[in-house]
UniProtKB/TrEMBL annotation:
This is Helix-turn-helix transcriptional regulator. Keywords: DNA-binding, Transcription, Transcription regulation. InterPro entries: ArsR-like_HTH (IPR011991), HTH_ArsR_DNA-bd_dom (IPR001845), HTH_MetalResp_TranReg (IPR051081), WH-like_DNA-bd_sf (IPR036388), WH_DNA-bd_sf (IPR036390). Gene3D superfamilies: Winged helix-like DNA-binding domain superfamily/Winged helix DNA-binding domain. It comes from Paenibacillus chibensis. The keyword NAD does not apply. Residues 1-103 form the HTH arsR-type domain. CDD domains: HTH_ARSR.
Length: 103
């Protein structure tokens, strides 16, 4: 894990907020009605829902989500025409542990 890449990813207020919201998605987003019942991706939220919450264009939010995913903080799953994102708890834990060791 590139710790600087991860720090840069969370240095943007909106990206940081997205991570916070996805910690408890049921409190911040409506149920994901488009997610197929066969899709085993609990806690996943579609880009459109995240975009609506931020008030930013979907293309901007998609870029933010990709940056967070590349940093190891999110994971995604495509189901039909929608892409769902959720926190990568293992990646977040690794980042925190690495930050503790390096600082």
């Amino acid at each position: 894990m590139d710790i600087l890449q991860t720090i840069k990813a969370i240095s943007n207020e909106t990206r940081f907020n997205i991570l916070e919201w996805l910690k408890h998605p049921e409190e911040h987003f409506s149920p994901q009605e488009h997610m197929p019942a066969t899709c085993d991706f609990e806690g996943g939220i579609c880009v459109g829902s995240i975009s609506a919450k931020t008030g930013l264009a979907q293309s901007v939010v998609s870029g933010y989500l990709v940056k967070l995913q590349k940093a190891g903080l999110l994971e995604s799953r495509r189901a039909g025409q929608w892409t769902y994102y959720r926190r990568n708890e293992e990646g977040i834990h690794r980042f925190i542990e690495q930050l503790k060791q390096e600082l």
